[in-house]
C-alpha cells in the first residue's frame, strides 16, 4: 500500500515541509495500519519543524490524527480492522493519509465523537483536562487568567474552567477572537496587544490578582503573567507560541508574592494505560455532556500543511485546525 506523507530533512520555516509517496508495509508486531480521515494541527508541530524542540532528522511531522484501522499486527489486543481510533503521539508522522502506528498510542472513539472532533480535540482536550484538573486543580470560585483564549487549547480551557466554576479572564489579539472567547464563556477579555494586561487583571480582581495563569504564549506574556498572579498563586507555563521563556532567576517568584511555577507536558500526565483511559474518558464526557464544544476554526487539505503552519504562526487561526487527507 502507498501513502502520502510529510517529512522535513532540515529545520526552518514552513517551506521545509516536503511531501513523499512511500510504501506502507504490513503492520509490525504491536502496530496497526491506520487510514487517517482527519489530522490535527498543533503548535508543537511548528516547534518540531522550526527546531525549538530538536528531533532526529529527517523526520515525519504531526502528532494527532483520527481514522479507521485497516489491519492489525501481531500481538495487538482489543483493536480490530474497522475500529475508529485517534492518537496524539508521541511518535511524529501524523501528516499522512495512511501509516502504521503503535497500538499502545491509540484511543478507541466513542460513537458520539466524530473523527473530525477527535482530531480537533484529542491532544488539545487531554491537555486541557490535565492542566485544569490534575496540574492546577482549579476550584470553583477561583479567578484564572487564560492567555490566547481563542486558540485551540484556549477555547477548550475557557469552557472547561467555566464548567468547574472559575471566573475566567481571557487575553486575545482581536475583536473577532474576543467574540469567540466570550462565546466560550470568558467573563472578561483583555486585549493583550494593546492593553496593560496585569493592570487590567488587578482591576478585575479587586487588586488581588488571579489564582492561576495558564500561559501557552511564553516569552511575550511572561512578565504579564508574573504581575497578574496573586500571592501564592500558580503560573502554569505550558507553551511557547511567541518564544520560550529562558534565563529566569527563581528569586522573582519570591518578590512577586511567593508564586509557584510549573512547566508541564501532556506526556507526563498521560503515562500508563489507566491514566490515559481515564483522561480521555473525562474529555469525551465533557464533550458529550455539551459542557465543552469543539470549535474547528479552519480546515485545509492535508498537503497545504505549510500554509496552515504560516497561518497558525501569524496568529491568523482560531480554535482548532484540521488537515484533511
Ligand atoms: P493556538 O491555537 O493557541 O495558537 C497560538 C495562539 O497564541 C495564537 O492564535 C495567538 O492568539 C497566540 N499568540 C500570542 N503571541 C503569539 C506569537 N508571537 N506568535 C504566534 N501566536 C501567538 O495553538 P494551540 O492550541 O495548538 O497551542 C496553544 C499552546 O499550547 C501552545 O503554546 C502549545 O505549545 C501549547 N501546548 C502545550 C501542551 C503541553 O503539554 N504542555 C500540549 C498542547 C499544547 P492571539 O492572536 O489571540 O494572540
Structure, explained:
By secondary structure, this protein is of the alpha/beta class. The protein folds into 2 domains: 2-122 and 294-324, Quinone Oxidoreductase, Chain A, domain 1 (Alpha-Beta Complex); 140-263, NAD(P)-binding Rossmann-like Domain (Rossmann fold). 31% of the residues lie in helices and 28% in strands. The chain has helices spanning 43-50, 115-135, 152-164, 175-183, 197-204, 222-228, 251-255, 266-269, 273-288, 305-313, and strands at 2-8, 18-23, 31-41, 59-60, 64-72, 84-87, 98-102, 106-108, 143-146, 167-172, 188-191, 210-215, 229-237, 260-262, 296-301, 320-324. Helix 6 (222-228) links the parallel strand 12 (210-215) and strand 13. Helix 2 (115-135) packs across helix 3 (152-164) and helix 2 (115-135) packs across helix 9 (273-288). The mean pLDDT is 98. NADPH dihydro-nicotinamide-adenine-dinucleotide phosphate is lined by residues 42-44, 123-124, 127, 148, 150-154, 172-173, 177, 216-217, 220, 238-242, 264-266, 312-313, 315, 317.
